[in-house]
Amino acid sequence: MDKELKIDTEYITLGQFLKMIDLIQSGGMAKRFLEENEVFVNGQLELRRGRKLRNGDQVEIKGVDSFIIIHDA
Question: Which pLDDT score, from 0 to 100, does residue 33 have?
Answer without folding.
Answer: 97
